[in-house]
Amino acid sequence: MFETCRWINEPAHWRLEGGRLRVTTDDHTDFWRETHYGFTRDNGHFFGCPTGPGFTADLRVRAQYRELYDQAGIMVRLDATHWVKAGIELTDGRPHLGSVLTLGQSDWATGPFEGDASDFWIRASVSEGVLKLQASADGKQWPTLRLCPFPVTPSYQVGPFCCTPERQGLDVEFSAFRVGPPLNKDLHDLS
């Protein structure tokens, strides 16, 4: 799927080979709008591909998070004011599973991740105005991370994202990127 992706804020250092995308983040990059901090940043790295009106996308993420707010995962984006990002983010001294939903302004939700944060899977599904985020430690069991309303549109952009608001130099490897029709499984179906 990476062959159909295009960069928003292309990093200085990246390469794509053998179905793996390797990225090193640029300095002070982030996706955030207004809430709490009062500033807007839209300079994080996002490698998105087009979708139809509904889809499920998942990917594997490997990284070593070392500094405050180091983050990597999946993003669904309509434009600079309508998007969601979800993945691992370093905060309060340890990696957390988190998501930021931005519909004009950003929110932020975090919680512990029970698996190995340096190697995890993340999934986003959009169908009929509903966004579902799931995370997995093994690519087989997919507990729900977030369920929320999301704008209905004929197409979205989805793909890997990463950023380092406090530094540069986070090395991230993305792989096993797939995009298909919405799974539309029962809310508590973990497969």
From TrEMBL:
SUPFAM superfamilies: Concanavalin A-like lectins/glucanases. This is Regulation of enolase 1. It comes from Hypericibacter adhaerens. It comes from the Bacteria. Gene3D superfamilies: 2.60.120.200.
